[in-house]
Amino acid sequence: MTEIAKEHRLKLGLIRKCKERTFKENLGLLFLNLLLTVALLATPFIYIAWRGASRNVPNANKQPWIKFNDDPSTSACIAWESKENTTSWVQYGLDPGNLDENQTVIGFSGFMHVVNLTGLTPNSKYYYQVGYTEQPGGAFIPHVFGDIWHFWTAPATTDVPFSFLAISDTQESALGMHHHNRVARALARYKDDARFIINGGDVANYGQEQDSWDLFFKCARPYSPCIPFAFTLGNHDDMGTNQPMYRKYFSFNDPGEPLYYSFNYSMLHFVSIPIPWGNPSEFTKFGFMSWLEDDLNKSKDMKYKLVTFHCPLLSSGFFGRNRFLEENLHPLLDEYNVTLVISGHSHHYERCYMDGITYMVAAGGGGLMDPCHHRLPETQLVASHPHYLKIDCTTSNLTVSALTPDGVLFDQAVLGGIA
Ligand SMILES: [Fe+2]
Question: Labelling 250: which of 31, 72, 355, 392 has CA 20 to 30 A away?
């Protein structure tokens, strides 16, 4: 018997078997098939619903975070959010066993708490605890996150070595906060020594949604109470909505506060400017160019100048090189001998070099990583995995180290600054 005849006979046998089944048996098989099909189609929706449920942050209580409002050598701004409407009270001091200085906001100040500490001693490690009092003159009641944390003030002189960190694009992705959780645990290892941390924007994925910000602060808990933030506006934080949530958490609701700023830290001059998409209209919308030129001119004698903005000027990734920024921003950065530029936006790691300026993309803080399509002529190294930067600043050089969340060093550059 040929193979074809054998196959034909087998098929006939199967058809006969089907016909021999009772109507009840066939109905059972049909039901089973339907059940399997529904299960297959429902799986992605069940996964999305499970992801949604895992994003829920049941209450608004947030651990404190720190930013610099004025001179970081003598002041610091402590912020936190509470579920209850309470007063604001910060106890602080140089001895963790004796927090002998107080700054209290009397009267109910609400759910967002912002307390400015001034008159601090430069280059000192301060310890603090946040809480409230139920009535004027009452006892200190710790916030639900009532630990004693610490932060450093900046040196008063320009010759003290120090270290700081940089991340960008800490937003959630299809993997939830998996990447930022990993990076956050790595950053926490530096909380005793890192003087501040740059976040290059896209802090939250849905900049207009409270849940997204709650999720960021929940994940940043291991490091945010001890390492002051230096923020930069990303396109996901902006979302064309005049940044109400970004301002709530980083500018503290002052609608008139510009989203550009700078500060000096020992021999480093740090600048942040809002360029979320890299569009020409942003130069008008945020109006930073004349301020930037004036700021760089005033700081021209600082050994290192570091500028952050979200959209990269040079990138081998999804957004490519930005000709508008290259023609309209790079000449100014070049004229004032900027040492280093850190951006995000394109979710990968890259180090480029052009006209004496090191341009970096450090967008491995949380979001899904993007592939890189091609290398630019200026590219020194490109990679596509989660990462963070550790930057060591001395009077001799600025050493930028790129590390994976597991602490593996995969790139390092030593930059000179001005003589
Ligand atoms: Fe992003």
Answer: 392
Q: pLDDT tens across 213-232, in order? A: 998 999 999 999 999 999 99
Assigned CATH topology for domain 162-415: Purple Acid Phosphatase; chain A, domain 2 (3.60.21)
Alpha carbons 46 and 124: distance in angstroms, whole number: 51
Centre of ligand 1 to C-alpha 365, Å, is: 9
For domain 62-152, say whether CATH 1.10.10.10 is its number.
Answer: no
Question: 364 C-alpha vs ligand 1 centroid, how far in Å?
Answer: 9
Q: 257 CA distance to ligand 1 centroid (A)?
A: 24
Q: What is the CA radius of gyration of the chain?
A: 27
Query: Nearest to residue 116, comparing CAs of 76, 166, 173?
Result: 76
Dist CA 405 CA 48 (whole Å): 26
Q: Could you tell me the distance, in angstroms and rounded to a whole number, from the CA of residue 180 to the centre of ligand 1?
A: 12
Does the pLDDT value for residue 103 go beyond 90?
A: no
Q: Quick one: pLDDT at residue 58?
A: 45
Distance 307 CA to ligand 1 centre (A): 18
In the chain, residues under CATH classification 2.60.40.10 are 62-152
CA of residue 347 to ligand 1 center, whole Å: 6
State the chain's mean pLDDT as an integer: 89
Written in H, E and C, the secondary structure of 226-254 is CCCEEECCCHHHHCCCCCHHHHHHHHCCC
Q: Distance from the CA of 306 to the center of ligand 1, in angstroms?
A: 21
Q: Which of 79, 369, 367 is nearest to 206 (CA)?
A: 367
